[in-house]
Design brief:
Layout (H helix, E strand, L loop, with lengths): L5 E6 L8 H14 L3 E6 L35 E5 H6 L11 E4 L5 E4 L1 E4 L1 H9 L3 E4 L1
Parallel strand pairs: 1-2, 1-7, 2-3, 3-6
Antiparallel strand pairs: 4-5
Length: 135
């Protein structure tokens, strides 16, 4: 029996101005729909992808940030945020969307998807992955 591969999607760019953030989200949802073991990491300007209250009116781009709230429905429950990246941008967890999932093994209890990790801890998370997609 083959081992299930772990797929890590690393998001390093701001949500708008390029197609990277939107493409990452689409690929994550497709992978999760095919029951891949999916994790996401948000590093550097990638942390802006999860900020609350995004307004793209002046950019003439679709605001896709509400789509992140569907990740739990696709069983994408491992979302890692690099603590130092938040701090360097003057952000805290309170500035980010509250992403959750329902644990069927715990009477459908709602649980947080976001895990705040240090750079050193992120290295350990990365070491446990098999496949990386960088956006």
């Amino acid at each position: 029996m083959s081992k299930v591969k772990k797929f890590m999607y690393v998001n390093r760019r701001a949500p708008y101005g390029t197609i990277y953030a939107w493409e990452s989200l689409e690929v994550v949802l497709i992978g999760a729909a095919f029951e891949q073991d999916v994790s996401m990491a948000f590093i550097g300007d990638g942390v802006y992808q999860l900020t609350k209250g995004q307004d793209t009116t002046g950019l003439e781009m679709k605001n896709f940030s509400p789509t992140y709230s569907a990740l739990g429905d696709y069983e994408v429950t491992k979302i890692y945020i690099e603590k130092e990246s938040l701090e360097e941008r003057g952000l805290t967890l309170e500035d980010l969307q509250h992403l959750t999932w329902e644990d069927e093994d715990d009477d459908w209890a709602e649980k947080d998807s976001i895990q705040l990790v240090s750079r050193a801890e992120m290295v350990k998370v990365f070491a446990d992955q098999d496949v990386f997609f960088n956006f």
